[in-house]
Structures are given as structure tokens and as C-alpha cells.
Specification:
The complex is a heterodimer of chains A (224) and B (254). Chain A has a single domain (8-218), classed as MetI-like fold (Orthogonal Bundle). Helices cover 78% and strands 0% of the residues of chain A. Chain A is built from eight helices and no strands. In chain A, helix 1 (8-49) runs parallel beside helix 8 and helix 4 (91-116) packs across helix 6 (133-163). The radius of gyration of chain A is 21 Å and the shape is flat. The radius of gyration of chain B is 22 Å and the shape is flat. The chains are: A mainly alpha (224), B mainly alpha (254).
């Protein structure tokens, strides 16, 4: 019965340094993975929406593989199987790489949907004004389609943040691993889980509140 | 789409599977170490994954539909409590929910001690029911008001109206997200591996570790790539038809 000795404040004041380090590592992995999945999503999403040969077929296969296999198996494959091919990555690299590849697949679908939602006549108007295809993409399709796909892509970033907890299985010292390790040593399981849950909920809830704000701010005047 | 062309499509969809089976069974030369591992993964891992997934998806669906329907009642306290439940379990990483069930509950009371697979199933029910509740709320609210009025005119109370009139219609719209939930639950049942529950992933991992030992336990070789890539193929073969089905239902039913 650990409930009788439950003391959240003592737990936090004793372990805040390790927990903070864990949180910083979580944010570090998330930031790298989110930036990477943004780039992957943008490039591959654009390639798919514009049916760039080879790249768009490759993207389709990549997206289906990532979406139809558990991310934990992907992490294991990268962490345990790549060394077999002579590629040795440290836990941090595996952490952001695996979560980034996962987020990139989902994000390329988000961006594809956004770019495809841009009415054809807008692009034609761009061509009529003498824009090159590339200039039309950067000046017409990207600003409009990017806004359309913004809410769903931010949802993907939130999932990326949550999925960084999975690198617990490879022992990378992010927030979840840190909290569970402290709990295993100090037996203050409930306090550790409370801190863990509260930190994640704060991060996720504030991010989703941020989306709703951004959504109203970036909403296209034409769409309601 | 006519019935015949649907049948044709199903047959066509089965052809690659058949080809894969023939390829795997007769063309590929399997190394000696593969057979016992495949047997272990399929006889121990796969049933556990399917059992956890089945329990989780049934529990999540039932609990989620009830919570989601109750969420449409405009009584503030009940709405607040259910909304909090939904937001908490949608907001937490599922792994953290698994830890809360597996490590947290026994710390509160020793009678709440579960084995890893059961804990995973419970965590997936908590997470999945939050997803389903949110989807159900949307589906129930999308049923036009006239249906509520018609049910009231027929003499149904709240329970009767929802059980016989509203929910059967809402369920149609709920079907695609429920198939999507099934896919997610099957994939997330691998989280049991983080707490030592032997399902597909843990079975594959323990076998891949065993191979690295010296004989007689293992063969002193690393075959992690083959094993985990094979596991990916298994999951893909389960998930891909289901995601196609979800997309198909989405197009047809909504």
C-alpha cells in the first residue's frame, strides 16, 4: 500500500533535476522529429499531390508500410537490426529517427490532402499570371494548401510528441524512461506516474489549445 | 458497385496473398533457425496479440459508445466528468496509460494486480473508449433532430429512443472509425512488450535474443533484421486489408 506515503511534493523536490533532464530530452527528440517530419511531409506530400513519377510511388509505399506496422516494431528494427548491417546508431539518433520517419509518413498524407484541396483554378490563375510551375507552388499551392493541412499536421506533431515515450523500450533517457527508472529505485511509483501523466497532459493540452487558436487565426476567409 | 464486381475484387485481392503463400512455402529456402522461431511466434505470440486486441476492441467499443452517447446529454456535471475522462486518455501516451495500469494500480491496492497482457488490454480499453466516445458524440449529434422527435412521438423514452432509433443510425457512421480503431489496437497491443507481456513483438524479440546465445540455446548469430522485418510483414498483412476496408466503408457509408 503506497497510497499512505503518497507525497508528491517531496518526490518532485527530490528528483526534479533528473525529471527536468528527461523532459528536456523528450523535447529535444520531439523537436528534431517534428522538424524532420515537417520537411518529409512537405516534400513527399507535394510530390504525391503533383504526381511526380517515382517519388510519389515511393511515397505511397513508404506511407503504407509505416501506417500498417506498429511503430514499436519500427523502433526495434532500427535499433536492433541496423547494427547487423554495420550501421551503429546511438539511442538518441534511433529515438528521433524512428519517430521522425513515423511522423513524416503521416504528415505527407496530411500535406497531400491539403495540396489536393487547393482548387485547380487557383493554380491555373497562377500560370495565367506567368508564374512558373515552381513559383505557382510556392506562391499559390503552398500558402493555401499548407493552411488547409495545418490542423491535421499539428495533430500529427502531437502524436509525434506522445510517441517519443516509446523510446523507453530502447532505454533512451527521456521523460518516461527517467520517471519509470526513478520509480523502480525509490518505489515511489504513484508519485512518478503522477508527474509523468501531468507533464504529458500539460504538453498535449497546451499544444491542442494552441492549434485551435492558430486554426481560427489562419483560417482561409473563403472557408468556414 | 454490383455484387459481382465486389466478388471479383475480393478474389483479386486474395491473389497476391496466395502468391505470397506459394512464394513463402515453396520458393524461399528458409534457414534452419527460422522454423522453430516461426512456430513460436505464430503459436504463442499471434494468439496473445489477437486475444488482447479482441478484448480491447470489444471493451473500447462498448464503453466508448455508452460514454459518447452520455456526452450528448446537456447536463453539465456528467458532461464535465466524461469530457475529462476522454481528454485524459486521449492526451496521455498509451505507453504511460499502460504503466499506470501495470505499475500504478497495484500500488493503490494489491487486488488491482494484472498480468502484462491484461494490463495492456485494460490500457487499450481506456485509450480506445476515449477515441470511440469522441467519434460517437459526433455521430449521434449528426442524426437530425426529426429522428429524436419521431422517436418521442412513438412513445420512446431517452433510453429507448437512443437504443432503437438514434444509435442504429449513428452506428453506420461509426463503422469506418471503428475499423480504424481495430487497426490501431492491434498495432498498439505491441506495447505489452514494454512490460514483458509475450505477444507478437515480445515473442519475436526474445527469439532474436536467443539466437545470439551459443549452442545449444542459440546459434551465436544475429538475425534481428530478418526476424523484425518478418514481424513487420505479419503486421502489414493483418493491417493493410483492414485499412483498405476502413477507406472503403468511409466511401460507401458516409
Amino acid at each position: 500500500m503506497l497510497l499512505a506515503t503518497y507525497d508528491l511534493w517531496a518526490f518532485v523536490s527530490e528528483n526534479w533535476r533528473e525529471l527536468l533532464d528527461g523532459l528536456i530530452n523528450t523535447l529535444k527528440v520531439s523537436m528534431v522529429a517534428i522538424a524532420g517530419s515537417f520537411v518529409i511531409g512537405l516534400v513527399l506530400g507535394a510530390a504525391r499531390a503533383h504526381r511526380v513519377p517515382v517519388v510519389s510511388q515511393f511515397t505511397a509505399v513508404y506511407v503504407e508500410i509505416v501506417r500498417n506496422t506498429p511503430i514499436l516494431v519500427q523502433i526495434f528494427l532500427i535499433f536492433f537490426a541496423l547494427p547487423q548491417a554495420g550501421i551503429r546508431l546511438n539511442a538518441f539518433t534511433v529515438a528521433w529517427l524512428s519517430v521522425m520517419l513515423w511522423g513524416g509518413a503521416f504528415n505527407s498524407e496530411n500535406f497531400r490532402a491539403g495540396f489536393e484541396a487547393v482548387p485547380h483554378r487557383y493554380r491555373e490563375a497562377g500560370y495565367a499570371l506567368g508564374f512558373s510551375p515552381r513559383a505557382t507552388f510556392f506562391n499559390v499551392t503552398l500558402p493555401i494548401g499548407g493552411r488547409i493541412s495545418l490542423p491535421s499536421s499539428i495533430n500529427t506533431y502531437i502524436s509525434v510528441l506522445k510517441n517519443t515515450s516509446l523510446v523507453y523500450v530502447i532505454g533512451y533517457e527521456e521523460l518516461t524512461t527517467t520517471a519509470i527508472n526513478i520509480a523502480a529505485l525509490s518505489l515511489e511509483t504513484l508519485e512518478a506516474l503522477t508527474v509523468l501523466g501531468l507533464v504529458y497532459l500539460t504538453l498535449v493540452w497546451s499544444l491542442s489549445a494552441g492549434i485551435r487558436k492558430l486554426e481560427t487565426k489562419l483560417a482561409l476567409p473563403e472557408r468556414h | 458497385m454490383s455484387r459481382r464486381s465486389l466478388l471479383l475484387r475480393l478474389t483479386l485481392a486474395l491473389l497476391p496473398l496466395l502468391a505470397l503463400y506459394v512464394f513463402a512455402a515453396y520458393v524461399v529456402e528458409w534457414p534452419e533457425w527460422a522454423e522453430p522461431i516461426a512456430r513460436y511466434v505464430f503459436t504463442v505470440g499471434l494468439p496473445a496479440t489477437l486475444r488482447v486486441s479482441a478484448i480491447a476492441v470489444v471493451g473500447a467499443t462498448l464503453l466508448g459508445i455508452v460514454l459518447g452517447t452520455l456526452l450528448t446529454i446537456k447536463w453539465r456535471p456528467s458532461r464535465l466528468v466524461i469530457r475529462l475522462y476522454v481528454e485524459i486518455f486521449r492526451g496521455l501516451p498509451i505507453l504511460v496509460t499502460v504503466f499506470i495500469v501495470y505499475f500504478g494500480l497495484p500500488a493503490i491496492s494489491t487486488s488491482l494486480k494484472f498480468d502484462p497482457l491484461a494490463a495492456t488490454a485494460i490500457a487499450l480499453v481506456l485509450w480506445g473508449s476515449a477515441q470511440v466516445a469522441e467519434a460517437t458524440r459526433g455521430a449521434v449529434q449528426s442524426i437530425p433532430r426529426e429522428q429524436h422527435e419521431a422517436a418521442a412521438a412513438l412513445g420512446f423514452g431517452w433510453v429507448g429512443a437512443h437504443g432503437f432509433v438514434i444509435l442504429p443510425q449513428a452506428l453506420r457512421r461509426l463503422l469506418p472509425p471503428l475499423v480504424g480503431l481495430l487497426v490501431n489496437i492491434i498495432q498498439n497491443s505491441t506495447l505489452a512488450a514494454a512490460i514483458g507481456g509475450v505477444e507478437l513483438l515480445q515473442a519475436a524479440k526474445s527469439q532474436s535474443e536467443r539466437l545470439t546465445f551459443f549452442p545449444p540455446a542459440g546459434i551465436g548469430e544475429i538475425h534481428a533484421f530478418e526476424i523484425f522485418a518478418g514481424l513487420m510483414v505479419i503486421f502489414f498483412l493483418i493491417s493493410f486489408p483492414l485499412t483498405r476496408l476502413a477507406a472503403f466503408l468511409e466511401k460507401r457509408l458516409v
